[in-house]
Each structure stands twice: as C-alpha cells, then as structure tokens.
Amino acid sequence: AQSVTQPDIHITVSEGASLELRCNYSYGATPYLFWYVQSPGQGLQLLLKYFSGDTLVQGIKGFEAEFKRSQSSFNLRKPSVHWSDAAEYFCAVAPNDYKLSFGAGTTVTVRA
Amino acid sequence: DAGVIQSPRHEVTEMGQEVTLRCKPISGHNSLFWYRQTMMRGLELLIYFNNNVPIDDSGMPEDRFSAKMPNASFSTLKIQPSEPRDSAVYFCASSLGGPGNEQFFGPGTRLTVL
User: Are A103 and A22 in contact (CB under 8 A)?
Assistant: First the structure.
C-alpha cells in the first residue's frame, strides 16, 4: 500500500537558521510529489511539486525540495527561515491520478 | 479570484442534528474534493467529484455522510445524524484537469459536535 512518512512531528528552528523537513514515500513508481503548508486556522497552500525532470524543485516563499529516487525521498529545505514560516508542513503524493495521500505533517516552530 | 469558499467557518451542533457544509470551488475548476482533518487520522479524502459527478466516495465514513454537487459552482457535504466523533476540520479543494494538478484548498469548516 502506498504511504507517506514524515518522520519529524515537530521541529524547532531559530530564525535565520536553515530548515530541512523529511518526507519518504512508499510506492512502486515515482508518483507526483507535493509539499503543502498550513498556517494556523488556514487551508493548505501548495509550496512546490515534482513530476519529472530536474530533481531539485524551487517553490514559493524561498523553499526548495530535492527528489531522490534511490531513497524514495522528497525533502523540503529553506536556507534561512523567517518567523512567518512557523506552520505545519505536509508532504503528499499522488500515484498518477487525483488522489493525494498526505503525510502526518511536521509542525515548525521558529524561535527568535 | 476569491479562491475556494467554504461556509460556515465554524459550526457547533448537538449530537443527532443534521449538519450541512458548503463549498464554492474556483470558477473554471472541474474537480472538487472534500477532506477531513483530525489529530488522530490526519488529512483524509472523503469524496472526489469530476465535472459534477462523484468519482470516488470510498473515503466517506458511513451512510451518515453524503455529498452532492448540483452544479459546477456549488457542493455540499451533509452529516445526518451527526456524532461527536465527526468533530473535525472539513476542507474543500478544487483543481483543474488531470492528475497531479494543484489542488486549491478552502479555509475549512471547523465542526464541533457536542
């Protein structure tokens, strides 16, 4: 069965420090891969997505993600976090259709 | 564009009551999704409509839940009768076209069933 794993439930990072959120998926072929962000009381917003091609994907708000086929991973990174990056982040996969499977999410806290 | 619109934003009701959640997708989008978010189960897809037709309702928990999409600009999710375990945030999302296209999420409806 397809699954998405976000190993870190909660990460605390200092403002200005780098951030990396991990995502691993279990699926036979390379699915469509997504990262969404959810601010408190808000819906989900797409940060970036990967379908094929260049394995380093640039997204909005200064985020990037790298697809590594050998590790079945799609980790999200940001070189320097801002206080406004405090939110919950969801990795999601869709095999080749509409059906998104979400990871459990990682909550990011930014300290001053 | 106003984005996906959901109403109400918050709903508090008593067990046994009927609850209706509403969604207006982004104009021009032909796919609509209802999700439920809880601490225990995370984000779950409840039902997917394409061109107003329900394509996949395998995520609908039980017969107490029903969803309709009478036209391209409106959908409802109804729970009758409601139970405390239905308490969750319900999201509506819409997208255009085929697989892998971005789903745009509404702000959600926080439902509390007492």
Answer: no
Picking from A19-23, A38-42, A106-110, which range would have the lowest pLDDT averaged per residue? A38-42
What digits encode the pLDDT tens for the residues A1-38?
668 999 999 999 999 999 999 999 987 777 889 999 99
CB contact under 8 A, B99 and A46: no
CA dist A67 and A71 (Å) reads 9
Count of CA atoms in the C-beta half-sphere (13 A) of B58: 3
List the single residue in B95, B100, B106 with the smallest CB-CB distance to A43: B106
Interface test with A, best of B94, B103, B109, B110 (most A CBs within 10 A): B103
B94, B32 Cβ separation under 8 angstroms? yes
pLDDT at B100: 73
Integer Cα distance of A33 and A92 in angstroms:
6
Quick one: tokens of A3? 């699954």
How far is it, in rounded angstroms, from Cα B104 to Cα B79?
A: 23
